Amino acid sequence: MRQGTFQWMKSVNKSIILNKIRTDAPISRAQIAKETKLTPPTVSSNMKELIDQGIVIESKLGESQGGRKPTMLLINNQEFYVVGVDAGPEMIECILTDLSGKILKRISSKMTTPLTNDQFLIILKDCIRNCIIDISATSKKIIGIGVAMHGVVDVETGTSLFAPILRLTNIPIKEELEKEFGLEVKVENDARAMALGESWFGEHGDLTSMLVVNIGRGVGAGLVIDRKLYHGAQDIAGEVGHMIIDLHGEICECGNRGCLQTFATGPAIARRAMKELTIDSITAEKVYELAVSGNEEFAIILKETGRVIGIGLTNLIHIINPQKIVLGGGVTKAQELIFPVVLKTIEQCALTPKAKQTEVTITKLGDDATLIGAVSLLLVDVFEPN
Prior knowledge:
The protein is an alpha/beta fold and 386 residues long. The protein has helices at 12-24, 29-36, 40-53, 117-132, 173-181, 190-201, 261-264, 266-276, 284-292, 296-320, 335-349, 353-356, 369-383; strands spanning 27-28, 56-61, 71-75, 81-87, 91-97, 103-110, 142-149, 152-154, 159-163, 168-171, 184-189, 209-215, 219-225, 228-230, 324-328, 359-362.
């Protein structure tokens, strides 16, 4: 829906009520009032607005507790849409979902580097436009657009400050998309968006802290504390790919030497295979294929990658001490070779017995983890009290 009309969803009381229905539906008005501590008149007045707007629907009657059977309430998930975007570094992917996160449409556009800010924005706008073209006549039902962008993002202004792999700076994503589409736009670092998506859709239970690490073309992380993303003082929390592992190591795209990103990413795996096995050209995917087909030399390279990732995660356990770590990204597709070594390394290196037992899992959201995270940027605004 258009900016301005989106604001009706964003009052604290409405968010409290909506979140209660989202998590506990079907639920009655009386239950909502009792469990949220809001007064029955407050619940009733807000509920009338939410039903009139179409985001809440009444369902069949509930069980009677001695009086009339109460009318039960549900979120009308299919009535509104959210656009989620995974922007780069090699491709822009867009999805259209309903309020439950169900993917209704998917569009993608490849990016060829080098490119300028303007060229990037043209590809981004075209991809979004193609994703929503079928519902343009009812665009008032689109809540907004969530963009997960690699690199450093100014969340308040929605600006991509530094996209290292694309070698772009100061892209005014929020400003340009809001001007183009007239919709609410949220922009977030891709790994942090992925972390938010995991907290909403990853089925991890009621955790107070969770670290999500995305290992693919780059390495990034997001930390969720009490269901909220942690950004840090200068919005660079989660840039774990630039944790220095080897002072004398390979030069990273950021300009420093020996960053975790120079060891753990897909391109890093390919470079190491070419160097150690004197191969002219190979991809990380091919390294994996050869390893699982029984080639021990390639299997060793992936196991060495698991060792380095394990060291990086041990450092993060010592600094952050999260309840749970979730790994995602393309490199985790080689989990049968990498993951056991990751766990073994943490067990060997972590300081205390409890730290050694930190739960580490692979995302269940698969390749869509970042896209679902982008969608969650808007859902948080609707369902979570400010």
